[in-house]
Specification:
The protein has about 280 residues and is of the alpha+beta class. Helix content is about 15%, strand content about 25%. Strands 7, 8, 9, 10, 11, 12 and 13 form a seven-stranded mixed beta sheet that branches. A two-stranded parallel sheet has the order 1-6. Bound molecules: 5-O-phosphono-beta-D-ribofuranose and magnesium ion (2 copies).
Amino acid sequence: PAAPVKARCPVYPGSDTHRFLVSDDKVDWDTDWPQYSPVNYTAPTVLKKPVWADPEIGAFSPQFNSLDGSVDRRSHEGPYHIQNGKPLNPHGRTGLEGRGLLGRWGPNHAADPIVTRWKRDSTGQLVLHTNSQLPVLQFVSIKRLDCGEWAIPGGMVDPGERISQTLQREFSEEALNSLQASPSEREETQKRITELFDSAGLQVYKGYVDDPRNTDNAWMETVAVNFHDESGNSVSELPLQAGDDAGQVSWIDVDSSLDLYANHLHFLETVAKERNAHW
Ligand code: RP5
Ligand code: MG
Ligand code: MG
């Protein structure tokens, strides 16, 4: 697979910390590189020991590569290596050790709900793309507050949480602002989206995410699932409202020229091809 790009972004997100420069040919741990000296950085927010973060290694030795109490420390990509008590990023060097903004040593599990519908004109007819002559998919996208990039409204899997719950919860929080809704409003929207999320979703990706927050010892992994509103009258009618870590929310046309967070564009390519849509 191609070497991760975003996990080697020069300046670490939310900081002034510069990564040690890693060229494409040095990413692989198997490539000998005695001069490699990554910068050590763990964000102050993580060191403050919030509930979602592990303590520093030393005072703490988690059960790597296994289900550690309710925290799943297994990788979707198989067993990862431990070096000096710390897990090694299975996709290679990132120029930074420690955890950066990530709470867990090793894999940090997320889930990404890709909610789609067909683009329609004012009379309800499917819109065909002028170049490809294929119908155009639209997906619910959020603008992330941390970096301003457009993304799938995904989020972290809470300890013990089922992925199917994470998918629905994160979609509700970020795209429907459920955290700010009154209990009765929340119940109403939950009813409507539960139907869509209970339908068989199409799993389009499971594994490592090329996320700018990744480090040599902590990285993002996700399960991305597509929930498609074929008729356009289920979730398509819900009023979108950005919430939690989303600044804006919108239906966006799926197209290969989009610029999205992490490797989210790759997930959408799979959705478009699977559904025979314009790409
Ligand atoms: C990405 O970060 C995942 O694909 C997911 O979309 C997201 C989860 O992190 P937060 O949105 O909770 O910051 O790697
Ligand atoms: Mg969230
Ligand atoms: Mg999120």
